[in-house]
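Thread: "does anyone have the structure for this chain?"

Original post by V.I.:
We have the sequence but no experimental structure in hand. Need at least a predicted one for the grant figures.
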Amino acid sequence: MNKSAYLDAMGITSWRVRDSKSCAYQVIWDEGGELPNAEPLIDSVLGLIGVTRDQCEFTCEPRRGKQIVWDLRRHKVRPRTAWLVSEPLASLLGSSAAKRALWQQIWQWQAQQTHNHAQPKAV
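Reply from O.Q.:
Generated one for you, tokens below.
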């Protein structure tokens, strides 16, 4: 019997080397979205919240242990833990109202970050 098949039959997973390029953040979007067409917008938004594209994993399903920085799904799932929540990319690219709502969230997020860093620390 194949060693791998034997372990699989017992429900034991194989040991794998950990991915050294671990991304701390997630951008959640709908499968089949306009991700390539929206690269300049994505880079601008991430830059405004202090995150780079290399720090993000772009996925359709959230994964535990990683902070969601931007939720672009059509149907949002509770609890909402993302820093930013916007319309899907296709709507965002074609709607000035959707962009305005996103920029408002970014402004609020930046104001909150500034406020949190300005608080004196208790000794």
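V.I.: this helps a lot. Residues 22 and 86 are 25 Å apart (CA to CA).
O.Q.: and The longest helix spans residues 96-118.
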